[in-house]
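Notes from hallway chat w/ T.B., transcribed later so I don't forget. T.B. wanted the structure written out for a chain they're using in a teaching module, and asked if we could keep both sequence and structure tokens in one place. Agreed to drop them here.
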Amino acid sequence: MPPKKLLFIEDEAYVVDRVDAILAQFPHFEVTRACDAEKARALLEETAYDLVLTDIYLRGASGLELSFKAREKNPDVCVIIITGLDGADLAAKAVREGAFDFVIKPPGLERLSSILKMVTLVKGLAPKD
């Protein structure tokens, strides 16, 4: 079975490092990274991702826009928003509009591992033995 495709969109280096460490626990995901809105839009145009992790605020785009774009290509995509405390209201709006969940950086990033485990089971993204 081919690996599940995950797009990780983030422009803050400390968040990228922390999330990369968490993603290392999930080798069944084929991870693609984007650090700016232009690259993220292009990747979302060409590929149907199974899972998208995106910052709510990215220079040139919002996580809401990128979540919508991901769902255009794959209506079943699971979107998880990463936000600072100041973006929590917008992240909650993203969940109401179809995102799976959100985590608050930096302290909430540790919660991401639990969310990814749940998504893997609930959305059928676990590797087949």
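Follow-up for T.B.: The chain has a mean pLDDT of 90. Might be a good example for the class.
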